[in-house]
Structures are given as structure tokens and as C-alpha cells.
Amino acid sequence: MDRAGDGDGWVSLAELRSWIAHTQQRHIRDSVSAAWNTYDTDRDGRVGWEELRNATYGHYEPGEEFHDVEDAETYKKMLARDERRFRVADQDGDSMATREELTAFLHPEEFPHMRDIVIAETLEDLDRNKDGYVQVEEYIADLYTAEPGEEEPAWVQTEREQFRDFRDLNKDGKLDGSEVGHWVLPPAQDQPLVEANHLLHESDTDKDGRLSKAEILGNWNMFVGSQATNYGEDLTRHHDEL
């Protein structure tokens, strides 16, 4: 991280924020490149919906989709969801994705025109009773499943408070589409800076406003769960950038 900055042996907030943003963009580029090689089967420099569908789900004749798998309905729903997202990402409507359009398909949270599809998919994932809202118990169920007789952990109580105090903006006890959007895609927020501030606050033991290598290693578990290390993946790379 510091090698990407001034090389003074300390990681400042600005350096940490810059590194997280760099890591995030590198992850996106790498994932799109890998997907491109898989999906562009005819090597024409574009990814058609048919190519993506067949590479992901296998080739089926119309009307015979998933006739040979046990949970056919689940796969049909996944296919329909992917096609819906592809159609939104395919801005010129030619059923052929450019690299930019494929990036929007794979990482819709990065593109303003994909906002509605991200919200719709989040609602579909969490709204178990299909009433068009996310109730607090549905929100918690996505995070935690209690064992019989188990007392609810403190962190779950904290999540309930987060739901009540910060997610449920109109205080009606549930989240509508607008509130889900505010939660999963908060407006005008510098996410790398938010994460950098959090890591600095939790790891800066001497409170000097910067991180030493010892402080980072002393809180390694938090960094493993962070975009700063690409969720731990960068720790397997052969470099020393701390």
C-alpha cells in the first residue's frame, strides 16, 4: 500500500483510500477479462446473449431448457434474471455486449443505469413473502439463522438497530425499493474512503492518523475481509506492498 504512495513506511488515510480504489478497479478488470475469454466463444470481439447463456447454462433447444436437471425451475429463474440484467446492460439493444456492457452486466453496482436492476434483484433476494418490501425479519434472515435454543448474538441486535435507525428511512418498519437503493447504493458516497476510514479507525492503535506495518498485521483479520486485500486474495500474491 505504501509503495503506491510516498514510500515513507507508513500508510496514510489518502494512501489507504487510493489503494482500496485501485484494488477494486483491478478486481473488476480481472473478472471481466476472465469472463470475456469464457463468453466470447466465436472471438469476434463481442459477447452475444446466446454465447453468454450457452457458456453459463449449456446449450438447449427452445422449450427444452433444463429438462435434464432436478431443480429446473430454479435454473429457469436464474436464466430469466440473467437475461433481464443483460438486456439492461446492453444499452444499444443489439443483443451483443461490448466490454463496457459486459462490465455493467457483471458489476452493475458500478453503473448508474443499472441502479434499478440492482434494487430489483436485492428485493427479490430478501423479500421472502413477496409483498414488495423487506421486513426486519427478512433482513436479519439474510444475515443470520438461529439454531434451536440459541440466544441471538449481540451483532444481530446491532443489525436490528441499523435497520431501525438507518435503513428504514420513513420508519414504517419495512424497506421499500427506494430505501433498499439508499442502503445498497448510497448516493454520492466515496466507498473506498468510507472503508479506509473504518480500517484506520479500527487499526490505528496509537491514534497517530496513519498505519504502520505492525498495526496492519495486528488487525490482519479485518484486512482479510476488506477490499484493501481484495478480500484476502492479494495475500497470495508474491509482493510486499505494505
Automatic annotation (TrEMBL):
Taxonomically, which superkingdom? Answer: Eukaryota
Q: SUPFAM superfamilies attached here?
A: EF-hand
Q: What is this protein called?
A: EF-hand domain-containing protein
Q: Which PANTHER family match?
A: RETICULOCALBIN, RETICULOCALBIN-3
Which keywords appear in this protein's UniProt record, sorted alphabetically? Calcium, Metal-binding
Gene3D superfamilies in the cross-refs? EF-hand (1.10.238.10)
- Domain EF-hand, by residue range, is 27-62, 77-112, 114-149
One Gene Ontology term, aspect cellular component:
endoplasmic reticulum
**InterPro entries according to UniProt:** EF-hand-dom_pair (IPR011992), EF_Hand_1_Ca_BS (IPR018247), EF_hand_dom (IPR002048)
- Phylogenetic placement of the source organism: Eukaryota, Metazoa, Chordata, Craniata, Vertebrata
Record GO terms (molecular function): calcium ion binding
| Native organism | Bos mutus (wild yak)
What the record says about family reads: Belongs to the CREC family.
